[in-house]
Each structure stands twice: as C-alpha cells, then as structure tokens.
Amino acid sequence: METRLLGQSDVQITPIIMGTWQAGKRWWVGIEDEDSVKAIRAAYESGITTIDTAEVYGDGHSERIVAEAVSDVRDRVVYASKVFANHLKYDLVLEACDRSLQNLKTDYIDLYQIHWPSGTWDTEIVPIEETMRALNRLKDEGKIRAIGVSNFSRSQLEEASQYGRIDSVQPPYSLLWRKAEKELQPYCMEHNISILAYSSLAQGLLTGKFGIDHQFAAEDNRSKNKLFYQKENYQRVQEALDKLRPIADRTGCSLAQLSLAWLIAQPQTHAIVGARNAEQVIANSQAANVRLSAEDLAEIDAISRPVNEPLDDNPVMWDF
Fold it and tell me: Across the strands, what pairs with 198?
C-alpha cells in the first residue's frame, strides 16, 4: 500500500489506518482478544502499517493488544496513540506517555495525540501551552516523533499550533458525517496538517449491514450514536445507502470500500477503520485500490448531502 507523509514530519502513514478502539473492549460487545490480535496482524500483512490506539481504550488494554500483535515487526509499523483529557498537566502527560510506551513495548511512539481538549468529559482545564510544553519535551527526547490532536475545533487547533508543530488532527469524518469539511479541512490544507478520520464507516453504517429496524444493546456505544438512534437520521441514511449501492456495483467494490475510497480521496485525509476480525481488515485494505472518477466522486457527494445537511452543529457523534 502506498504511504503518505504525516503533516510536515518524516513519518510515513498509510491512507487506511487500523483503528483499535474495539480492541480495548470497553463500550463494545462481543470482542475477543484473540480476534483483535488476528485482525491487527492481518492489517499489517495487508499493507496497513499504521495503527491507531489510545491509553483510554480499556485502560491500556488496546495498546497491549497492539503490542501482542505486531511488536515483532515494530520497525515496520507506525504507532499512533493518545493521552486522555484527564492527563493534560505537564507531569501527567509525561507519565501517560511512559505508560503507553510500556504497554506498546516500544521506546518511541510515532504519533502522540491529545485525545480530547482540556475540560471535556468533566476534566480539569489545563492551558494548552502547558500540555504542548510536555509534548515538545517528549519529542525532543525522542519518545515521540510527531504531535497530533483529536476532537479539536479549528480554533483549538490554531491555539495549539502557537506552541509547537501539530502534524495531524483526528475528527469524526465519513460520508455520513462531514462536519470536518467546514472549518478544519481548509485550515489543514493551508498548513499541511494530515486529517486522520475516525468513525470513517460511521461505526459500520456504511457497510450497509444494519437494516432499518436494527437495535443495539444498551452497553454498545452505537446505541448513543445520533445517526443510529435518531429515527429521522437513520431513515435518511438508509435512503442514501440505497443510492450508493449501484455505484459500488459498477465500481466492483463493496459499500464500505466505496465509502473509504471516497474518504481517502478528500484533501489531506486518511481513514481510520476498526475491525472485529481479519476478514473485515482484509476487505478494508482493498479500498486503497478502488479508483473513483471525478464523476463518481461528485455523484457520491450529492447522495450524501441530504444526510449531512439536517444534522446539528455539534461535532460529537454521540449523546453520552
């Protein structure tokens, strides 16, 4: 699989990135460690050499699963992890990074990201200057190679950039959730910042496997996703999927592959995709080979607009 430069760093990342939120198990149901290990290994063997995780995914469990899967090929994979909003004080950032290094069984993390802005999730407000000072120190020490942020608005990204080089931003972004295009994407294009889109398949909606009457268990985070539980949104999604299927058929790919191919064709954008098993990962990796014409991209864009335009301005996909 081709690689692209991460922002202005020297880190090379793949357009499809293996997401491992589900490997942490918390907020997911039916996840087995053995399947997660096999899925992550299958990602590497399919050419997806960039793996995204976080300390908060099962209190380090996801990071440990990543290490179990690919630590023997550490020099051929790119690790992206995140520090959570409750660890943004200077000393806590340093401690969190050391824990992640231990979990990942490595002495450096290629991309280290602020998972959520200070003050979210009822956390203490910490000046971004303080957090960035810690991240810059980690970079100077060689413990991290690049700095990124996640769930930041454009104004928050601009402020963080005053105190150090930010090479990536990680927003929710998919064909069904395009809020990143309004303010974040133009800024990233101007400043050469990579977009690492999470929930790039809208938590499975873009696979087309969830019918009109599908219900998630209460402990499944998708039961709180606005695209799923708000009936008017879900109806518009189903109508869009019906229009996308003929395009996937004529392109010779699945709905999911079509959606990922559209996403990685957008400026600065890479797609983080989670998977429960190796078969899903292998299918996701093939999206990098799908070639869409300008006409295809325009048609897909038009189909997705009626889903996106009625959504409110809150960039968060869930009502937790």
Answer: 172
Task: Report residue 110: phi and psi, to 5°.
Answer: -65, -45
Residue with tokens 């799908």: 290
Q: DSSP letters of 254-268?
A: -HHHHHHHHHHTSTT
Select from 94, 102, 177, 176 the least CA-distant residue to 140. 94
Q: CA-CA distance, 211 to 189, in Å (whole number)?
A: 37
CA distances from 18 to 58, 102, 246, 250, 306 (A): 17, 20, 27, 27, 29
Q: What is the pTM of this model?
A: 0.94
Report the sign of the C-alpha dihedral through residues 293, 295, 296, 301, in that order: positive
Is the pLDDT score of 107 beyond 70? yes
CA dist list (Å): 315 to 69, 121, 153: 33, 15, 9
Helices 294-308 and 231-251 sit at what angle, rounded to 10 degrees?
170
Whole-Å CA distances, 148 to 164, 170, 221: 10, 8, 25
Neighbouring CB atoms inside 10 A of 98's CB total: 12
- Which single residue is written with the structure tokens 């400026």? 267
Residue 111 DSSP SS3: strand
Question: Residue 165, SS3?
Answer: coil
pLDDT digits (tens, 9 = 90+) for 245-295: 999 999 999 999 999 999 999 999 999 999 989 999 999 999 999 999 999
Using CA atoms, how far residue 94 sits from 79, 91, 270, in Å, is 17, 5, 28
DSSP letter at 186 equals: H
Average pLDDT over residues 174-182: 94
Active-site positions read 57
What type of residue sits at position 68?
E
CB-CB contact of 201 with 259 (8 Å)? yes
Which domains occur in the chain, in start order? 4-207+255-290 (3.20.20.100)
